[in-house]
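Let's do one together. I've listed all components of the complex below, 340 residues spread over two lines.
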Amino acid sequence: MKTAVANEHEQGWDFERAAMPYVDSLYNTAYRMTRNSEDAEDLVQETYLKAYKYYDKFEEGTNFKAWLFKIMKNTFINNYRKKKLTPHKIDFSEIEESYERVIQKNAPDLIKDPETEIFQDMMDEDVKRALDSLPHDYKMVVLLADIEGFSYKEIAEILDCPVGTVMSRLYRGRKMLERTLLEYARKYGYIRGEAEPAKMRSRKDEAKPRKKKDGAGDEPEAQEPEENEEAVLFTGTEDEEFEFEVEETEEEQFEVE
Amino acid sequence: MICREVKRVVYFFLDGSLGPNKKQDFDKHLKLCPDCDARTKLHERLRAFLKRRVTNLSSAAPDHLKTRLTRSIRAFRNEWSAR
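Okay, and this is what the predicted structure of the assembly comes out as:
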């Protein structure tokens, strides 16, 4: 096998030059996957070493960043599977229903004032918690699409799954995340809903998980990340009930028909 | 297009992934339906909010990590060259 090392003279410091610009993206995504900086650093290091080792397998002209992300995802799954987490079930009809309730309660207030940043007072900690409340697979597609800017096709490549699965996870992941953000926003007074008056919170409250107040509303609580340590790992079942007809166009864009 | 269909494809509309005919139907519906129009804008704003805030939460990879990466890549290279 011709390794990157065998090619050293031709490639020189190519790999480092090519790969190092993505270290911040990889590190931040690793951090959001592992939720811990030590694990994130280890994951990034393992990813870089594997990528270097298999650099000759990288196809010129394809997206190098997506290739690195794919290696990182595989490494993460391998390490993660060793911990034998049980898959987490999601009740999608519950999500749709509670989303409708939440949005109907809050949307009028939010739409009134299109100029201000939505939830500008929301604390970073709550944004982070909302993101971490998503099951792993859903968090990944949302991060890859909406933060890292990968296309459906690139995400499908990174996650080794069909484009339809990416789209379906995106749909659901975004919906769950919006619901959680809207719930936090109402609960903690970033927007004024009907159920609970705006209230002040101090920084001290940030660290500890908040308990549900009696009569705080009839919506189910947003999942606390602490209670959501299991992940959905390629259970594959979520796609059966929700399908898009997708078409690959000449430009290799996927379109919903 | 009915409101239910709008809800189903709204994210893909925002991704610019609707086929031309579907996109036309979608645009037409928004012009006639203030509810769906408002909802679409809300989704758009939530997405922008998330992107802005998560990007702000991001930090540069720590310097010691960069050093560690460079060092381990070079060590690996030397190890192989020595064989």
